[in-house]
Every structure is written in C-alpha cells, then in structure tokens.
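Treating backbone geometry as a discrete language has practical consequences that deserve illustration. The sequence in question and its structure tokens are set out directly beneath this paragraph.
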Amino acid sequence: MKKLVEALKTFGLSEYEAKVLLALIAKGELTAKEISEYSGVPRTSVYDVIKSLMDKGLVESYGKPMKFKALNSEDLMRIFSKKVEENLRFLREELPAIEREKTEEVKVYRGELAMDKIVELIKDAKDEVLIIASHVPEEMIDALKMTKAKVTICATNADKIDADSVYVLRKFKTEFRHGMVLIDDRVVAIFFKDGTSLAVIGSGEDYVLLYKMLAESILNSDLVERVKR
C-alpha cells in the first residue's frame, strides 16, 4: 500500500488524497466516517480531502446519507495518463525557452572549426541573418544560399551577394576578412580571417543587444550605401 501511495503522489496527490482514493478503490462506496476508518485519515480532514479529489475529477458523491466512490481504475489511468502528457508537452515547450534565457555564454573557435560554426549558424537560421563585414568570405556566401531566413548584408562585396537587403561598405578597403554575424537576434559571431580563422560566438540578451545596436548604428551611417534591387 505504501508504494501505491507514493506512486499516486507523483501525480500531484497529497498523502491523504492518495490514502482516501485507495480506500475508495478497495472498498467501493463509503461514507466519510467509513473513509476515515479504512484510510487512517483523520475525520476532521476527510471532507476537505474528498472535496479536493472531487475537484480533480477522481471521486464522485451521491445519495443521503452522502456516500463517495472513486472512478474505476480504467478511467483513473486515463486521467493520470492525460496529466502526464500535458506535463511533458509543457516541459517540451518551456525548457528550451529557459535555455535561451540563460546567462551570457561566449565561446572561441579557431582554425577550420571557426568558419564551420558560423556556416552552421547561418544554415540553421530561422528568422534573420545580418552580416556586417569588411569582406564576406566565400564559405558564408555559400551558406547564405541554403538559409531560409531573411538576409541583410553590409560589406565591400555586398553587391555581389544575393540578399534581401544589401548595403555596400564604401570607405573600408582591406583584404583582411573580419566582421560580425547576427543570427535570429539570439547569437552573435565575431570572426577574423587572415591566414588562421578565429570566431568568437556569444549569446545572451544583453550581449546580443549590444551588437544589434552597433549594427544599426553602422547601417544608418555614411559608411554605407544601400543598394536597391
């Protein structure tokens, strides 16, 4: 019986509720007095416990004097199964949201892995990709062809890239590839490519907001010229 009580408690029942429910399942129709006798729950607590079980849809009442009975085991299992499914659905929806809201995280990648990580982020983007760079590397250009997200490019070679919004960086001439990539307003990748590649990839609300403000400042400056297509 103790194991059954513990099992029922995992579905949100209190110990008294579990004991009363088990007494009704075992004995059938009982009065409040009989419930107290069979379950061991104090008489003064029985009515409150029964009311709680009735509110949960697990117990029914009828007749004079009033008697109580539990739903049959099949119906009880259906209710408990539905509760489990609802909890799992809730966790599937909410746990990822908590992960996205966790504290800022910054990681550094070097060599081929640096560009690979950024390419992966671009391909997996769902809403928007914003790239501001001295010159967009070929690896990123190829990745942009595979993303379904809206693409905004600001770079010296931006007019040669297929994108939704294009800003040509006129006053910046260098073969040194470096810049930033903002993915879905949730991840920022700062990259440097001059012989050896380096990428600093960070997340977190404040971290992303800082670079988003920087990006807006650049796009609205006289450093760039928007290309109409």
About this structure: The helical segments are 2-9, 15-27, 32-39, 43-55, 73-100, 112-124, 138-144, 205-219.
